[in-house]
Every structure is written in C-alpha cells, then in structure tokens.
Amino acid sequence: MAQQRRAQRKENPGQKQSLLPVRANKKQFTVPHPLSDNLFKPKERCISEKEMHMRSKRIYNNLPEVKKKKEEQRKRLILQSNRLRAEVFKKQLLDQLLQRNAV
C-alpha cells in the first residue's frame, strides 16, 4: 500500500497543492445575509500595509501629548538658535569695540 501511495504521488505531484483551501488566495469580502434589507455588494475592506502605517502615523501625530512634545522641541530649537545669534552678535560687537580702541 505504501508503494502504491508513493507511485500515486510521483504520478500526480500537483494533487497535494489542490488540497489546500482555495480561499487562501482570494481576498475576503463581507457577505450580506440574504434575508436582510441591505443587499448591496460590499466593497473590499482590505487596506495595504503602507496605508495602515500612514493612518497609524496620522492618528499618532494628532495626539495631544505628541503635539505638545513637538511644540516644546520647536521652542527649544528657537531658543538655541537665538542664543547662538546673541553670541555671534556679542563677538562682533566686541571685535568692533576693540578695533576702535586700537585705532
């Protein structure tokens, strides 16, 4: 019997693949109940992975704590740039004063 099975497998190698469920390759749709009033053909509800990431990112960025954190970081950058500008201005002013005193 085992030899017969081996012989059948060699003759029909694609038979094992047909035993797999056919629905695995198809996208799944919601099927309306035949007795319900809502008998429209539903749209495909599957969304791509990229869309899912974009949606999650958009929702995350709209959270109040995330907005607050970004605002604080923006203010910190502005303060830092202002300090650097003040330092540069101070150096320029000192250079001008020293040049005037030297002449």
State the main characteristics.
single chain; 103 residues; mainly alpha; 4 helices; 64% helix
Give a summary of the structure in a few sentences.
With 103 residues, the chain is an all-alpha fold. Helix content is 64%, strand content 0%. It starts with a helix and ends with a helix.
Molecular structure report:
With 103 residues, this protein is mainly alpha-helical. It has a domain of 50 residues. 64% of the residues lie in helices and 0% in strands. The chain contains four helices and no strands. The chain is elongated and about 110 Å long. The termini are far apart. InterPro entries: ALMS_motif. One of its GO terms (biological process) is regulation of centriole replication. It is found in: Cytoplasm, Cytoskeleton, Microtubule organizing center, Centrosome. One of its GO terms (molecular function) is microtubule binding. Keywords: Cytoplasm, Cytoskeleton.
Which shape, going by the Cα principal axes? Answer: elongated
Query: Helix share of residues?
Result: 55-70%
Content of β-strand:
under 5%
Count of discrete alpha- or pi-helical segments spanning 4 or more residues: 4
**Total count of strands:** 0
Average the pLDDT over all residues and give the rounded result.
81
**Unreliable stretches:** 16-25
The main pleated sheet reads as: none
- Please tell me how large the radius of gyration is: 35 Å
- Element-level helix/strand string: HHHH
SSE class = mainly alpha
N-end to C-end Cα span: 113 Å
